[in-house]
Design a protein that fits this description.
The protein is an alpha+beta fold. The protein has one domain. It is built from 3 helices and 3 strands. A 3-stranded antiparallel beta sheet has the order 1-3-2. A hairpin with an 8-residue loop joins β2 and β3.
Length: 80
């Protein structure tokens, strides 16, 4: 996201939309979690903070340490 757009809630709105779509898929497919790959680079710490604020946790994938997950039950509770 462009720096002049930060702090306006756009990233949060996009993630909420993605979580809702993930829940709709989970209802049809029986998924247990929503998975997110956190980009690396200069803003990696900020991106991880944003991700964890939404309830995501590190997946612990040794092949992709930037992968996080959110259990479907937690996503439902967050979105109410």
């Amino acid at each position: 996201m462009r720096q002049d757009q930060q702090g306006r809630g756009l990233g949060t709105a996009l993630m909420i939309d993605a979580m809702r779509r993930g829940l709709a898929i989970a209802d049809r497919m029986g998924d247990a979690a929503i998975v997110r790959d956190v980009l690396t680079g200069a803003q990696a710490v900020r991106r991880w903070a944003f991700t964890t604020q939404l309830g995501f946790r590190p997946l612990g994938d040794p092949n992709n340490p930037n992968r996080a997950f959110l259990p479907v039950a937690d996503a439902r509770a967050t979105l109410g």
